Automatic annotation (TrEMBL):
Belongs to the class-I pyridoxal-phosphate-dependent aminotransferase family. The keyword rRNA processing does not apply. It comes from Vibrio scophthalmi. GO terms for cellular component: cytosol. Keywords: Aminotransferase, Pyridoxal phosphate, Transferase. Pfam families: Aminotran_1_2. GO terms for molecular function: identical protein binding; L-aspartate:2-oxoglutarate aminotransferase activity; L-tyrosine-2-oxoglutarate transaminase activity; pyridoxal phosphate binding. The keyword RNA-binding does not apply. InterPro entries: Aminotransferase_I/II_large (IPR004839), Asp_trans (IPR000796), PyrdxlP-dep_Trfase (IPR015424), PyrdxlP-dep_Trfase_major (IPR015421), PyrdxlP-dep_Trfase_small (IPR015422). Homodimer. Residues 27-389 form the Aminotransferase class I/classII large domain. Its EC number is 2.6.1.1. Its cofactor is pyridoxal 5'-phosphate. This is Aspartate transaminase.
Amino acid sequence: MFTHLPTPQLDPILSLSVAYKNDPRSEKVDLGIGVYKNSAGETPIMRAISQAQDIVVATQQTKSYVGLAGCEEFNQSMVNLVLGGTSVLDRVSAVQTPGASGALRMLGDLIKVAQPNTTVWISNPSYVNHKPVMEAAGLKVNYYRYFSPQTKQVDKGMMLEDLAKAGQNDVVLLHGCCHNPTGADIDFDAWQQITALAQKNGFTPFVDVAYQGFGDGLDADAKGLRYMADNVDEMLITTSCSKNFGLYRERTGAAIVLGQSTVDANNAKGKLLTLARSTYTMPPDHGAALVKTILQNQELTEVWKQELSEMQQRLLSLRKSLCDELRNAHNTSQFDFIESHKGMFTVLGFSQSQMSQLREEYGIYGVGDGRINIAGLTEKDIPYVAEAIIKVS
Ligand code: LMR
């Protein structure tokens, strides 16, 4: 049965973590997988999560099943976090999923059932899992131009030109904020223009928001997608608690559907539940129980927001320190774009072979597409990483 299977391709991100762990060099730096590290190089359990964990342990009475949709209070809390302040809350439904990749797959499967001939347009480049997940759901994938390798910013003109070709059988996948891998986000004007194209040409927007709070803050990071939700008939959203609640291994996310009516949104949810039943039945509870505990408690919500904001500020200061080091110690402003990028990631503009050189010669692990995770840096790594960047460039 398995003899004809080819040797599997390694995942371009997850395989790096294994290679990094096995690297004996003491100077190695892990800038691969998108995980936040503090100045000590640790990924701590967030303060609000620790407190919520104590509450859950002290109050939880049973480990019996929750339900196909997971925890409904969690689902409602996630809808409020992402779509708070919009006028669409009465035609929205949500299900808890195993992480945002689980949400991507659930919504991919939903699209396949609702409109089998759909093509999903993704940015070039995009999160490495977007294409495989959409294709695994049986959908066609097309690319829209997004990033200018020259300016290291979004090329809005090219992007809009490509998206103008998307029509009724198309879904356009956008990054809500903190674009993965480039770090280059679209501005509010682009959100408005894409919304206008969706209205005019009939494509369905699909927003993946996995880093809310890491860019400009919780509300600012959702501004574009909230505008879009307020102005389109239908929309799909995936969201994650991996990064902003630091719940990576707990696989905590949600799939949100905006329908033309309450009935449509509920029918879509019903379909998502049968899809979940035939896949994993129901999502794991622990992470959602913690997030629900935080978001339903004002005091804990404040503790969480404070720490998230500290993390966001630290990312800005790491970006600045890396640029300062490159400018002051190496006399180059070639990498100033790093400071303009948002969230965890930046694409350096390096080729696969330059990224290999960083890894092989310096023990600096970034993704083959040129992505480095700024949130994986510690302050003490900056001179070493800056020097390696210069040597390799
Ligand atoms: C990343 O892009 O590094 C993260 O989203 C981890 C993942 O699931 O790939």
